[in-house]
Design brief:
mainly beta, eleven-stranded antiparallel beta sheet, two-stranded antiparallel sheet
């Protein structure tokens, strides 16, 4: 079984995924979080004093670095297993999706998100010869008072919606690819994607596997 490798990205992904899945273990008296959702214009002010236009301009800077595919396992086959190459990573946003959300009600017994700016877009990883390695949709967000940078924790199921380079070799009740993307110090991009397969062993217990699918590290 593959062990999920420790990195700065995985705890961040776990935290955000936990916050997004607000009521998977709610008690009967718990209440779902309710949010006020407002579209943002390019020149509106964010909770941290910038504008969406200025923030997104930084997020959309193409970054050079290294892409590495994970190793194939007994559960998952990766076409270019272990292959590493210089690459470019770029994020392009959809200007119609820039939005601000704020908790307004509910949430007793659960952890609600703070004021958050989010935007949908597409992440593309390309080789230096401009060949597309990976292109996936995702949502980028920054929460006021939490991690002081933009990040994304996307999930893809079925895994074919992530990449045709992956082939499952074992049967699980649930499979997905989940990722962590963060701009270190607001600038340098780091990305990791993992495969997760899980099955129920009984009504109350389950088991699963994690394995690295791919990783991008921006140049220092």
């Amino acid at each position: 079984m593959n062990v999920l490798r420790t990195s700065v990205l995985v705890p961040l992904a776990s935290l955000v995924l936990m916050r997004q899945t607000l009521c998977t273990s709610c008690l009967p008296d718990d209440e779902p979080c309710e949010y006020d959702l407002v579209p943002l214009a390019a020149d509106d002010e964010t909770p941290w004093g910038t504008t969406p236009a200025a923030d997104i301009a930084t997020l959309e800077l193409s970054q050079h670095g290294t892409w590495r595919w994970g190793e194939s396992t007994e559960y998952l086959d990766i076409d270019q297993s272990g292959f590493e190459l210089p690459a470019w990573a770029s994020f392009v946003h959809d200007p119609e999706t820039v939005r601000y959300s704020e908790h307004v009600d509910g949430g007793r017994g659960v952890a609600c998100n703070g004021p958050t700016v989010s935007v949908d877009g597409t992440l593309t990883i390309s080789s230096e010869a401009d060949e597309v390695i990976l292109s996936v949709p995702l949502t980028v967000l920054r929460e006021f008072g939490s991690v002081q940078t933009y990040l994304s924790t996307p999930q893809y199921s079925p895994i074919s919606s992530f990449s045709a380079a992956l082939s499952e070799k074992a049967k699980f009740d649930m499979t997905q690819v989940f990722g962590s993307m963060i701009w270190i110090d607001g600038v340098r991009l780091q990305i990791e994607f993992f495969y997760h397969g899980q099955s129920m062993l009984s009504e109350t217990t389950g088991g699963g596997v994690f394995t690295l699918v791919g990783k991008f590290e921006g140049d220092e």
